[in-house]
Recover the amino acids of this structure.
């Protein structure tokens, strides 16, 4: 199962819990994880460049040096022209 969404949180410690239910059998499963959101006003993140992605697509490519390839998916750069 894959689900992707965005959520904005203020700095602090949070617990994320995801519960899923299979419609036909009714079986359920859950996952729980701690999330620490840093205060980026006090400690900003420094980046060297920004890449704007247009979409994700499945990829068979494997290159651990390429940050655009993660978990079998490739971020396709947006054309900014």
């Amino acid at each position: 199962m894959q689900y992707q969404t965005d959520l904005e949180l203020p700095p602090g410690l949070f617990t994320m819990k995801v519960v899923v239910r299979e419609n036909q059998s009714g079986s359920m499963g859950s996952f729980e994880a701690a999330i620490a959101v840093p205060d980026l006003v006090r400690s900003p993140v420094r980046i060297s460049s920004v890449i704007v992605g247009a979409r994700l697509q499945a990829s068979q490519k494997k290159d651990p040096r390429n940050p655009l390839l993660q978990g079998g998916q490739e971020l396709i750069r947006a054309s900014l022209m």
User: Anything to note?
Assistant: Residues 11 and 37 are 5 Å apart (CA to CA). The first strand starts at residue 12 and ends at 21.
